[in-house]
Amino acid sequence: MKKLFVMWGQILILTAGLSAGANGRENGFVWSASSVWLEQKTIKDPAEYNAYISALNTTDPAARAAAMEAFANQYPNSVVKIDALEQAMAAYQQAGNAQKVEQTAGRILELDANNIRALAIATYIARTQASAGNAAKLKNVCADSQKGIQALPGWPRPEGLSDADFATLRNQIATIFYGAAGFCGLQSKDYAAASAHYTKAFQLDPSDIQNTYQLAIADLEVKPIDPMGFWYCGKSIAIAQAAKTESAAQSITAYCKAKYKNYHGSDDGWDQMLAATAAQGAPPASFASSIKKRPTPGETACQAVQENNPADLSFSDWEFILEQRDAAPCNIEAANKVWAAIQEKQKNGQVKMQILVKVISSSRNSINVAVTDENQQANQIDLQVAMEKPMAKLPVSGTMINVIGVLTKYQLQPFFFVMEKAEFTPAAPGQK
Predict the structure, then answer these.
(1) CB burial of residue 261 (10 Å; 0-12, 13-18, 19+)
(2) Whether this model's pTM surpasses 0.85
């Protein structure tokens, strides 16, 4: 909540403590009150003018806010009604009354739907509430952020505000709108839109941990993954550590490092990446290509056959390569080489192969078994054995046996070999 009031203060800072300048013509009852938010407006009724000036010069923020609201109620057609409500909104911010800030912003938007300051405050508050689990507020966030993005380019510089201060204020408000629009994209899983909006918000305010971390999430959840998200991971961790919010840093690290290991294949280079990112203001153009993606199973299978004689590979390697047969053209070629090597070992069916296996289930004419260590641990069948003769005594499930026969084919999804003309013998003690 402290950060929330700081943000409001940045937006409303030009409102709090303003004094009014006045010009009067007693006989003509023409009075003018200055406002730095809008161009100069004229109040013709001296009583109305005095009420406005009295409220504006009230020192206590809570009392000034109440006086401005009372003025708006007493003079509903006043030319400075919205000015008065903006002053009230700023005073409530000074007084630390979040609820009244929100209510007053809503009241202003009822009168002026494109009021930039009120729209920014309403958007920021709604995003905060939606982030805290108020799903009903998400619709407001999405509608108001888009309205703000569209209205902001046409927002004229308020009278009395320097070009430099106006640029600062526009950037602060734009950060709110783009961050909120990114949040909407993230919630709807439109990760490309989320990333585009968050990137604009980050460029405007690289110190905002919420937008920076959520930009990382958008990049890392999209398919295929955008490795640029790892840079924003590093930056958000650095921001959290600089702010001494270790719980946030640990939470971000847990998510990001898991994503990094899954993408890269290990955590090699993680610490170096964090150190470099912390010192950078923006991601280098070469960053994405510097994070090497681990090979896919299909790529690993092709590489195994390219670098080894298929006949020398283990049974587990054969199984892995054949499983990847349809992944890519090189996998078809790799699978064909492996299958040809298996058939060559069997002399095209003239020589039987002996394999140590774990029994999963059996009937008189067949045994379902697991060959690889992984499948044995999971009790997952990867070889169906058709016996040459019906078995008088079935092997016990869970025991290790040797099956001896000819591998004649294999099936994908789920993967298993088929062995025919088979027989079995019990495994010898200590046999591996």
Answers:
(1) middle
(2) no
